[in-house]
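Before relying on records like the one below, remember that each one covers exactly one chain. Contacts with other chains, cofactors or solvent are not represented anywhere in the record.
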Amino acid sequence: MTDLFYTYVARSRSDAATFLDIGEADACPDPTAHALGLLDDHPSCDHVEIWVGEACVAVLSRQGQTHVAEA
């Protein structure tokens, strides 16, 4: 068990947070694939932010754009 968690913030086109999903890093070895799955499962979602602690480490959009923050 780890203390590292991913927080997935799904946002609409107006940038409103539509839902949050929190997952333990050990249970989700590929956070990008999980975020893409959330986009597939939630049509109202325009993009998903992946957070580790207080840092947004990636943003995946429905248009295929990915922004990965530098460490």
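The mean pLDDT is 88.
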